[in-house]
Amino acid sequence: MIGGEDTINRWAGSPGGDRFEMYWTLRAVVSGTPDPRTGYLCNIKQIDHFLNDIVVPHVYSCAADPDQPRGIAGALLKVFPLAVQYCPSLICLDSLELHVSPYTRFIVDGEKNMVMLTRSYEFSASHRLHCEHLSEEENRNTFGKCGNPHGHGHNYVVEVTLSGNPNAQSGILIPMNEFDRIVYERVITRYDHKNLNVECAEFQQFNPSVENIAKTIWDRLSDAFDRVSLHHVRVWETPKTYAEFAGQ
Predict the structure, then answer these.
(1) Can you give the CATH number for the domain in which 54 is found?
(2) What is the pTM of this model?
(3) Quick one: 103 and 140 in the same domain?
(4) Contact at 8 Å (CB) between 2 and 14?
(5) Of 99, 159, 200, 237, catalytic
(6) Could you say which of 60, 81, 109 is where a domain stops?
(7) Which of 42, 57, 152, 214 is most buried by its number of CB atoms within 10 A?
(8) Which candidate in 92, 138, 185, 193 is catalytic?
(9) Across residues 205-212, what is the average pLDDT?
(10) Quick one: the chain helix, strand, coil %, rounded to 5?
(11) Same domain for 23 and 137?
(12) Are residues 214 and 176 in the same domain?
């Protein structure tokens, strides 16, 4: 599997409502069997061609034209079958992914014929990794410095991904302000600048590892959204380590 990408515009700006004037990055992910002679899955120039000449103009015009209020999600979903037609032969277009800001991305999954929307959020919190049923030596061997009796802190990044079909009229999955409000009310304000072990009841008997934090955030958001589904939650504890939970 390989991915190719290109940019839609070269100017940074600020988002306005559900439309964005940003430095956008478009990524196509394709899969197949490499050519035994060249080792290539395909010629990257072919991917660049259908991204630049087919996908980019369509998505940009639909997202920017007030007379075509399909929104970004609707535009991506609409252009996907066309992109499949222009995709190089012998490979499969698996997904189109559009990053409209460092904190927001849309993905069209070809196999599932749905759009996924991801938003990123941050909170800072402290925790201590410690299990009461383990001896002090076992805790030290298991958690090391993370078992410091006075705790330690992280700047967590939470990625929340929703999935569904865009509204037929607006072309959007969910208004961004509604998305943000739900996540802030249910997650960010609850955990930001907190000692998770002490101030959050769910972690007093539940070790606040990044794995458990991801599952707990899923539980807090699983019934929060109408018309769309919670697809998965990813929590970055450090730039190198994340845990992801996608339901049972």
Answers:
(1) 3.30.479.10
(2) 0.83
(3) no
(4) no
(5) 237
(6) 109
(7) 214
(8) 193
(9) 91
(10) 35, 30, 35
(11) no
(12) yes
In this structure, what are the phi and psi dihedrals at residue 223, rounded to the nearest 5 degrees? Answer: -110, 20
Find the mean pLDDT for residues 65-76: 68
Of residues 55 and 1, the one with the higher pLDDT is: 55
The contacts of residue 243 (CB under 8 Å, 6+ apart) are: 209, 210, 211, 213, 214, 234, 235, 237
d(CA 39, CA 113): 30
136 shares its domain with 235: yes
What would the DSSP string read from start to end of 52-104? IIIIHHHHHHHHH-TTSTTHHHHHHHHHHHHHHHHSPTTEEEEEEEEEEETTE
- Domain end: 92, 109, 126, which one? 109
Are 67 and 86 in the same domain?
A: yes
Instruction: Catalytic residue, from 58, 146, 211, 244: name it.
Output: 146
Measure the CA–CA gap between 61 and 75, rounded to whole angstroms. 9
244 is catalytic: no
Per the annotation, the verdict on 58 as an active-site residue is no
Reply yes or no on whether the pLDDT at 161 is more than 50: yes
Residues 159 and 224 in one domain: yes
d(CA 170, CA 186): 26
Q: Is-catalytic flag, 193?
A: yes
For 35, the domain range is: 2-109
**Separation between Cα atoms, residue 56 and residue 25, nearest integer Å:** 10
Is residue 96 within 8 A of residue 87, CB to CB? The reply is no
Q: Rounded CA gap, 45 and 124, in Å?
A: 43
Tokens of 21: 């004037």
For residue 14, pLDDT over 50 is answered with no
Residues 132 and 87 reside in one and the same domain: no
